[in-house]
Prior knowledge:
Chain A contains 11 helices and 10 strands. By secondary structure, chain A is an alpha+beta fold. By secondary structure, chain B is an alpha+beta fold. The longest helix of chain B has 27 residues. Bound molecules: flavin-adenine dinucleotide (FAD). The site of flavin-adenine dinucleotide (FAD) has 17 residues of chain B, from β1 and α11.
Amino acid sequence: MSLLYSDLQEELRGSVRALLADRCPPSAVLARVETDTPYDLDLWRALTTEIGVAGLLIPESLGGAGATPGEAAVVLEELGRSCAPVPYLTSSVLATTLLLRSGTPAAEKLLADLASGASTAAVAVSLATSPYDVKSSGVTVTADGLTGTVTGVAGAEPADVVLVPADGKIHAVTDFTVHTQVSLDQTRPIATIELDSARSTRIAPDTEPLTYALSRTAALLASEQVGVAEWCFDTTLAYVKERKQFARPIGSYQAIKHRLADLWLDIAKARATARNAAEDDPDEITIAVAQAWTSPVTVHAAEECVQLHGGIGMTWEHPAHLYLKRAKADSIALGTQGDHQDTLAKAANIPATPHGTGH
Amino acid sequence: MEVRDRVRAFLDEHDPSAMSRTEFLGARFDAGLAWVHFPQGLGGLGASREQQGVVEQLLAGTPGPDGRQGIGLGMAAPTILAFGTEEQKKRYLRPLWTGEEIWCQLFSEPGAGSDLAGLATRAVRDGDDWIVDGQKVWTSGAHYADWAILVTRTDPDVPKHQGLTYFICDMHAGGVEVRPLRQITGEAEFNEVFLTGVRLGDELRLGKVGEGWRVAQTTLMNERVAIGGGRTERGGGIIAPVLQTWRDHPELRTHDLHRRLLSLWVEAEATRLAGARLREQLTAGVPGPEGSAIKLAFSKLNQELSGLEVELRREDGLTYGDWTFRRSDEVAMFSRDAGYRYLRAKGNSIEGGTSEILRNIVSERVLGLPQEQRADKDVPWKDLPR
Ligand SMILES: Cc1cc2nc3c(=O)[nH]c(=O)nc-3n(C[C@H](O)[C@H](O)[C@H](O)COP(=O)(O)OP(=O)(O)OC[C@H]3O[C@@H](n4cnc5c(N)ncnc54)[C@H](O)[C@@H]3O)c2cc1C
């Protein structure tokens, strides 16, 4: 197993990066955040039709590219670098992984539509759900269909179909209403999904595919976070080389150089954990380490970016805040640092205080 | 033949229980399995560095180099490989690998630590020889070393980086005097070394006259990787004894320590993976400044984990193994008690370049940030204020 990128992955990165440079500059991302179309569907169409990102994880027999998580991870790094407002993580990773794991004929039918990007899916669970603690949804199933409300769902606005866990099973629903919530992360807002006697198709007879998909998506989220951290770092590094105070570049002051050296090292470690978690079949420890390390490092990178830009870093006009908001939201998404550490306690045999004997 | 097959074939022919450690290591050198990224005939196969992992894995449990050989293996060997003449490579590498000859590092001086290029030990030509006078300090293992890597000043009239020359120094030569320096651990692992009229033949020079800084850079880059870049398993290295204590003593666990231990476990694993990734990037040859960063990460972890362990042990943490003043017979962290590890780890952020200097190196050479404003670059060494 290599922790480096393959030539193929670098090639894929090159095409995604070029397309994003062209169609997803920070000014465009910023201009969109206060409109009522938070997702850039033209950009999404370009990514899916020109590069085929939507079908990467889907096998060729179902119309996809049959690529590995390593490729999806590279796409996520680039999307993170741009805070691109597209439903890749939510549809092409989370929903897709769930459907692949269920493997039912109904799931395969949906996958064939997702592979081309012609259709987009979301999973009706809160983005804040920890893969280690998946609660029941509060959606009820009656003879009339599915009824209930799910809050905190990411990628709902552009979704043609939502996958709803209810009654211990997973259902696909196309008849639902979406209300975007005022969200911290403006480039991946969360929304409320309402179901009112919605007709559904059975996707899986139990919710194991959901837990599995949340865990695998957490593994790949680390790569998106690395992309976010990398943008913050590169932007800050360029700025401190150019900005002068006291007649010299602020990047010549040791107080700043040393902070950036430490941050660079933290991000190098984050990349190593994210690459490790992007292998084909990562174990629980690998995923937990990637999340528990990368989440706080990415938030720190975004915070340093704001701080080292001074006043300009506090402005709406500078894109740093988009990354800070994404970084902070990502640190809550799919398990917090603490949730992943708790899992390590069990998986790596670092047991907690036994009851009654602690100090 | 694949490296894997070579190791298997080697093991078929050499039974470690039927030969001495030195013989076994010698045979391993001759089979090219000492350091596979070295050239053939010099203990290697000209393979990639990462292949060494395969060798170590398959040879696990067989007699290997010991703690005294660290400086030879990690610093002297790659420097000799990079700058030595063919005769020097043939003469020094094999006994260095087998442990028949032990090496130490005569770099630091009382007046030149972080600012190594400011060093004052003089080497003056005398016919075909050089006469060396000066004082070195913090020399680990000088008391059991046979050879040293030594940096001297041969030209005081040029700026400091340009007037240095690098030598191999015979530690048994006349005029070499080693005195122990007691450390915070109670024992003396390092020494001060007085060099008085030490005569070194020109065949002991490593690299060109005046090229000493470039040669020393190779040593230092390798030193940092050697200190920080070792292969470990998940949960291995410095965290292993802490985890052992944690598992063995449920009564010592607290909620606070649990959270801190989990955070450090994650950091240790992230550091281990970053080291593995770095090694993948290194092709055979000189590690770049990125290697320095791993040493930075390693010393922070060692210090935090050993500190946590002493605290975790509570009353036992109030005790210490042995303060008796003695000369250490090797540099070893793991066979020692937690209190020793805690104190010894303090040296990790000083030896081989302090953490402050390593951050300078990362920010200037990796990130391309401007250098500090310096007063010492274009001035002849002899005119520098000191
Ligand atoms: C356990 C141990 C073993 C050692 N073994 C050897 C050995 O075998 N051979 C050998 O040659 N040497 C050895 N050393 C010496 C080591 O390399 C030096 O101690 C080290 O380079 C620091 O030099 P110094 O002690 O003179 O401290 P100084 O350079 O005086 O540093 C003092 C403090 O100032 C800081 N500082 C200095 N310059 C700057 C700067 N530009 N910016 C910011 N901060 C700065 C340092 O980081 C440090 O905190 C060993 C040291 C230790 C602790």
